[in-house]
Amino acid sequence: MFRIGIDIGGTNIAAGIVDESYKIVKKKTIKTRNVSTPSEMIQAIAGLVKDLMKSAMVKADMVTAIGVGVPGTLDPESGKVLYANNLGFEDVPFLTELKKALGEELADKVYFDNDANAAAIGEYITGDYNAKNFVMMTIGTGIGGGVIINGRVLRGCNYAAAEFGHMTINFDGVDCNCGRKGCFEDYASVEGLMNLAWEASRSSSGKKSLLGKVSKREELDGEIFFDAVRKGDKVAKKVLDEYLFYLSEGIINIINIFQPDVLTLSGGITKAADLYLDKLKDLVSKGIYSRNSSKNTEIMLSKGISDSGDIGIIGAALIYKM
Amino acid sequence: MFRIGIDIGGTNIAAGIVDESYKIVKKKTIKTRNVSTPSEMIQAIAGLVKDLMKSAMVKADMVTAIGVGVPGTLDPESGKVLYANNLGFEDVPFLTELKKALGEELADKVYFDNDANAAAIGEYITGDYNAKNFVMMTIGTGIGGGVIINGRVLRGCNYAAAEFGHMTINFDGVDCNCGRKGCFEDYASVEGLMNLAWEASRSSSGKKSLLGKVSKREELDGEIFFDAVRKGDKVAKKVLDEYLFYLSEGIINIINIFQPDVLTLSGGITKAADLYLDKLKDLVSKGIYSRNSSKNTEIMLSKGISDSGDIGIIGAALIYKM
Predict the structure, then answer these.
(1) Which residues contact A290 (CB under 8 A, 6 or more apart)?
(2) Mean pLDDT in residue range A277-296
């Protein structure tokens, strides 16, 4: 049997047929900008699914489930996408229309979820975690997440739970694009780290450091930064320490709130984890409210398929499971 | 049939027999300080339960469940109280010993949970909320909480989840007793509000205000403060506005994280809710990340039994349900 996962991103809509061992056996992608209305997108998704099935010679009765990861808030009862900023969707009867477009044979097998929830489902299942309470925190350009409790994903009333990035950790801090100040992702995303590094690189000691060689903010990236840390650059190391404080503050908040068995880190920042994971764990273990308890959250790097670009597809294909 | 609930507090251990309509039919209390070791406390609890059953003429086969709310971290697998600061407990085999002390007829009916979880269970069941995702935030001297998702309480790996009070909202803010800085409860508990009010009362305009009539910090309480607000005292109203900002920041964080159907407020602060609830709701609705979505969290005052002092007992008696 197969499942089909569809990941709707701002740039691409990617769909794949996923086998029993969570491998993608066939994949297709279209540009998101090529479909301008919700109805066009729904038709395009149905077309993608049918194309995929045809080219992989998968018949409807070989499909267990079709899942779509949507970047927005959803309503489980009406099957609507309530709001998806990147797609320009507002109150779109997504599920009903997609079922119609896919036809009777597939209609009963269609599921949707928020894309971050789908990713957490994918990580949880493919990573084979032995955890009743599981939190995934994804640290990339922004910070997102997903939570699984007692074998079910925490969706909340509009499927948009686990918006960790928009938890303020500094109510009079920097302006956030969400309208508030001092959100976790402003400090602890890769973007937040690069902002710190850029600022440090402009100071008098920073100019003489490895970071100082970069002359434009856009040129600075994780590779350059962590390379400087690896080479023992003092300015870069100081920046990393400051960053780890911010990151630990958000992680401690989330642990105090969920007390998960496992909190797994994924996303771009984890590529250089050998440089900071032990220190991060130490900061967290000293700060959590339950630190005197002999049982606490284990922090680890994601071990499932989440570092591949295919997490969105595989996770979406597995939505029906949770 | 009856359930028995036991609430272990820092001052009293209170136990009650609870009937099918969640009323306490018989209640007994002992002083916590009269039992100095964990074993003594467990024996005393078993004694309380037997006393209660005897005086209410409730036989073992009339008891559905016995639940204990413990102020600490617990381990569901070993039945241990891992750590309870107020009780001086560390790795106490609580459940095993209590079962033994209660005897064979009752042993299978014994449950325990963190006291805040028990309170949330009590509120959720007696308040008859129609909510798959439910958050209770209790604002008193500190800030605590409980979360119910898909009909089960969020316990976390050590039963100490939902520690909302120790979510930093200002990482370089005031020192918190938990060792971090700027925790939600430092700003948004009743204590936090009183600190703000006291500070304002010492300013030159504050001295002329109704708050200025109080000459000692200990004399200032919620009644005096909200009475001043009710009388239109400008200084008090300004303090309330500042406080509501802090309170809303924490609530917005929790909504962004859980997206509950319902977030209910309980605790001392709710007594004066007529003075601020609408304003608070307005602040929250403007700040939440999903504010453009047509489906969002409903904020309300607790409507169950949580304002009575018996919430701890009733909630504990209902632990077995969730």
Answers:
(1) A255, A256, A259, A296, B73, B83, B158, B160, B163
(2) 96
Structural domains present in chain A: 2-123+308-321 (3.30.420.40), 131-301 (3.30.420.40)
pLDDT greater than 60 at residue A306: no
- Which residues are paired to B63 by β-bridges? B2
> Which residues in A lie closer than 8 A to residue B290 (C-beta atoms)?
73, 83, 158, 160, 163
Sign of CA dihedral A8, A9, A13, A15: negative
User: Which one, of A239, A208, A213, lies nearest residue A226 by Cα?
Assistant: A239
Cα A195 to the center of its chain, rounded Å: 21
Q: What is the pLDDT of residues B109-165, one digit of tens each?
A: 999 999 999 999 999 999 999 899 999 999 999 999 999 999 999 999 999 999 999
Strand bridging mode A73-75 / B2-8: unpaired
B307 pLDDT higher than 60: no
Structure tokens at B243: 């406080």
The DSSP annotation for B36-101 comes to -SHHHHHHHHHHHHHHHHHHTT--GGGEEEEEEEESSEEETTTTEEEEEGGGTEEEE-HHHHHHHH
* Residue whose tokens read 């120790």: B166
Contacts of A83 in chain B (CB under 8 A): 290, 292-294
Tokens of B274: 């007529």
Q: Which residues of B touch A168 (CB under 8 A)?
A: 169, 249, 252-253
pLDDT, residue A308, reads 60
Phi-psi region of B80 (alpha: psi -120 to 50; beta: other; left: phi over 0): beta
Given this model, what pLDDT does residue B308 score?
60
Residue B247 pLDDT greater than 90, yes or no: yes
- Burial degree of B113 (CB within 10 A; 0-12, 13-18, 19+): buried
Amino acid B35: pLDDT: 86
Length of chain A equals 322
Determine contact: B261 vs chain A, CB below 8 A.
yes
Classify residue B109 by its DSSP letter: T
Amino acid making up residue B165: G
In total, the C-beta contacts within 8 angstroms joining chain A to chain B are: 170
Cβ B136 vs Cβ B266: under 8 Å? yes
> Taking a C-beta distance cutoff of 8 angstroms, is the pair B119, B70 a contact?
no
